Amino acid sequence: MREVLTIEAVQAGIQLGNAIWEQYCAEQGIDNAVKRKEIAGKDYFFEVFVEETGSGEFVPYDTASDLEQNVIDNVKNGPFADISHPELLIHGKEDTANNFARDHYTIGKQTIDKVNDRLRKLVNNCDNVKGFFIGGGTGSGLGALILERLAVDYRKKTKIGFEIYHLPNLLTCVVEPYNALLATHWLLDQIEVSLLLDNDAIYGICQM
């Protein structure tokens, strides 16, 4: 069996991951109790992304991490809370005030070992990990830190990123463009394929 692991980094990545897992479950006939209903045309390649337990439940090869607790709490209390294993939902103790350097070099350092430990356990539970999907925004120092560790520990595995770039007309803080520029540097060095998502374009699609 081959597996692809999903890593959701900070708020943007976790929100993107929630939407993707909701879509996966709808397509594969998996209900909120993580049981697969009988539907026609099931895609068994889907099981590259999930593990089926002996009781017929589906658990994603997925971990989500953020430095503040609120986003993780939203996942735990959301409609698909039973899908993710609680140990793979990781949070730190404080926000970084939209500061990439603080996120990457100080506060993030306190969380990365826990992220790496959970990821190692996830890999050990797999038969043959082929690669990683990494999703997140472009202002996250923690996301860049995770990429650094992946490059060291799993350098021969394929890493594909889904990055959301900020909306220029609706900045939530003045340093967002600088954070995105710093994050892009790590993307160039640490990831094989980047699928860039323009928040402005996504916003326009949602308004159609």
UniProtKB/TrEMBL annotation:
Matching InterPro entries: Alpha_tubulin, Tubulin, Tubulin/FtsZ_GTPase_sf, Tubulin_CS, Tubulin_FtsZ_GTPase
Keywords for this protein: Cytoplasm, GTP-binding, Hydrolase, Microtubule, Nucleotide-binding
Listed SUPFAM superfamilies: Tubulin nucleotide-binding domain-like
PROSITE patterns according to UniProt: TUBULIN
Gene Ontology molecular-function annotations: GTP binding; hydrolase activity; structural constituent of cytoskeleton
Domain Tubulin/FtsZ GTPase as annotated: residue spans: 46-208
GO biological process, one term: microtubule-based process
GO cellular component, one term: microtubule
Organism from which the protein derives: Reticulomyxa filosa
Gene3D superfamilies the record matches: Tubulin/FtsZ, GTPase domain (3.40.50.1440)
Family matches, as PANTHER family: TUBULIN
Protein family per UniProt: Belongs to the tubulin family.
Subunit record text: Dimer of alpha and beta chains. A typical microtubule is a hollow water-filled tube with an outer diameter of 25 nm and an inner diameter of 15 nM. Alpha-beta heterodimers associate head-to-tail to form protofilaments running lengthwise along the microtubule wall with the beta-tubulin subunit facing the microtubule plus end conferring a structural polarity. Microtubules usually have 13 protofilaments but different protofilament numbers can be found in some organisms and specialized cells.
Chain's role: Tubulin is the major constituent of microtubules, a cylinder consisting of laterally associated linear protofilaments composed of alpha- and beta-tubulin heterodimers. Microtubules grow by the addition of GTP-tubulin dimers to the microtubule end, where a stabilizing cap forms. Below the cap, tubulin dimers are in GDP-bound state, owing to GTPase activity of alpha-tubulin.
Domain of life: Eukaryota
Reactions listed under catalytic activity: GTP + H2O = GDP + phosphate + H(+)
Name of the protein in question: Tubulin alpha chain
